[in-house]
Design brief:
Number of helices: 14
Distance between the termini: 63 Å
Structural class: mainly alpha
Largest sheet: 2 strands, antiparallel
Strand order of the largest sheet: 1-2
Shape: elongated
Radius of gyration: 39 Å
Number of strands: 4
Oligomer: single chain
Length: about 500
């Protein structure tokens, strides 16, 4: 055994300190120790290994291949993984964008609005009386002919040198004699000219009808509008939310809700949050909700620009994200839509994170003990989340277009549909349910009365003002189909990899 680096202890010259492992240059225990003559003796032994190398020699036989990779990923491998993830995210946004555009169009559309009627050349010209045969220098061959019907067999003969003029309609008694044909062809001077890009949507609740109308009106550019802005918004939303959540978790010494502390995360953590495994679930829930609200407030101007790009014609500039942001009055959240924006950002996170906690604490539905019941309950929870989110999203889209149209930098915003009014959260919901449009209600037959043709014809359908509750849930079908697809893919993946019940 080699002596220490500073030499043997003069008071204990025959003491051999214990060795931690055997190094390559260490003599065996059978060899006599060197330099035992005191502190003046010379030592020819090699320098002993350090404690770190000795510890590595002890732990060299342990296998960490199941826990740590043999080599860290290279920079090229990291860049390739990031590029693949970005491409996958953009592809998912690109495929879902047509349905998002159609849903937004149905949410902000004012019921009963359609494209303006095309002006007819002789719209204001009426039938002349039989005794009016001479107008503006024209003489017809028959007094019984109508002025609107063309003469096919006779030619008009001018009676003078006065140039021929267009026939005027019949003048009512007491009204001034003026040419109404020019008024019919041109709109009033002070009336706003209707947009020629208004979509003619037959059914206010048909998503496929809105998609087909957009395709016929604008082509492929019409259904893929605002794809880049949606992609940028989704990337920034997830980044800011994760950063704020981790920051608050570090400040308040609370586990990050986005980190799972279980080997097999439960189905409730599909959205990226795992409140169930946190030692302080209520604090983790508050941090997650606060982070979502902050991200929604910071990205509100970008969301307004995205909504504006969806609802304006694809042929009208500007079409880039930065140019559209420059048309807004400010890059901060307007106070008029601040409550709706905060509620729209925080409510889905609150429901998706708190309801699984309620299921386990109150209903004893645990992801480990009852996985099948828990997975089905999570699907119901996500459906309730969609039902609570759609009415607020409808009000928010109208408020965003109200802000975009009232901006002084925007000259004249022409939209593909007539945008409904915005009156705040409660006021807009009330206007959609009770004031906008009409709903046809078929009259119920009288009980006990024999059906007859007379009573059937006399019973007219009733018309009720307003869209009803259905107007607040435009586009719920595509949302449900999306939930079914995601839930089905997750459950089928669990069967193939983990051998769960589903």
């Amino acid at each position: 055994m080699s002596a220490p680096k500073e030499g043997p202890n003069p008071l204990r010259p025959y003491y051999i300190p214990p060795s931690v492992g055997n190094s390559a240059g260490t003599p065996s225990a059978s060899q006599p120790p060197r330099n035992l003559g005191g502190k003046y003796g010379s030592s020819q032994s090699a320098t002993p290994p350090s404690f770190g190398s000795s510890a590595r020699n002890i732990l060299a036989d342990m296998d960490y291949s199941d826990y740590l990779s043999d080599s860290s990923p290279s920079s090229m491998a990291t860049m390739k993984a990031l590029a693949e993830q970005a491409l996958w995210k953009y592809t998912s946004v690109f495929l879902a964008q047509p349905f998002d555009v159609a849903k937004t169009v149905l949410q902000v559309r004012m019921p009963g609005s359609g494209p303006p009627a095309r002006p007819r050349k002789f719209q204001a010209i009426q039938t002349k009386p039989l005794n009016e045969t001479k107008r503006a220098g024209f003489r017809y061959s028959s007094d019984e002919s109508d002025s609107d019907s063309p003469t096919y067999f006779t030619r008009p003969k001018p009676t003078g040198l006065t140039p021929p003029r267009r026939p005027r309609p019949r003048r009512r008694p007491g009204s001034p004699d003026r040419d109404l044909s020019s008024d019919a062809d041109s709109p009033p001077l002070h009336a706003p000219r209707p947009s020629t890009h208004i979509l003619d949507i037959k059914s206010p609740s048909s998503l496929t009808g809105a998609l087909s109308t957009l395709w016929q009106k604008e082509g492929a550019w019409g259904i893929f509008k605002a794809t880049n802005s949606t992609y940028v918004h989704s990337i920034l939303l997830s980044t800011i939310t994760s950063f704020a959540r981790s920051f608050f978790a570090a400040i308040f010494a609370v586990p990050d809700p986005s980190l799972s502390f279980q080997i097999n995360p439960p189905a409730g953590s599909v959205g990226g949050l795992d409140i169930l495994s946190s030692p302080t679930p209520m604090a983790s829930l508050a941090i997650a909700v606060s982070a979502a609200g902050i991200a929604g407030i910071l990205l509100a101007p970008l969301d307004i620009a995205r909504t504006k790009l969806m609802l304006t014609p694809s042929t009208h500039p500007p079409r880039s994200v930065m140019s559209t942001l420059n048309t807004l009055s400010s890059w901060t959240l307007p106070w008029s839509i601040a409550p709706v924006t905060f509620l729209h950002s925080t409510l889905p996170t609150f429901m998706s994170a708190s309801l699984p906690l309620f299921l386990r604490s109150k209903l004893s539905v645990d992801p480990l003990l009852t996985p099948s019941v828990y997975a089905l309950a999570i699907f119901v929870v996500q459906g309730l989340e969609l039902g609570a989110k759609l009415p607020i999203e409808t009000v928010l889209r109208r408020g965003q277009m109200h802000v975009a149209q009232s901006s002084p930098q925007a000259k004249e915003v022409q939209t593909v549909v007539v945008v409904g009014p915005y009156k705040g959260l409660i006021g807009t919901m009330r206007s959609i349910i009770y004031e906008e449009g009409e709903v046809t209600i078929m009259a119920a037959p009288v009980k006990g009365a024999a059906p007859s043709r007379t009573t059937t014809l006399a019973r007219d359908p009733e018309r009720k003002k307003g869209q009803g509750l259905e107007g607040l849930w435009r586009g719920w079908r595509v949302g449900m189909w999306g939930l079914i697809g995601v839930w089905g893919a997750a459950t089928m993946g669990g069967v193939g990899s983990k051998g769960g019940e589903f």
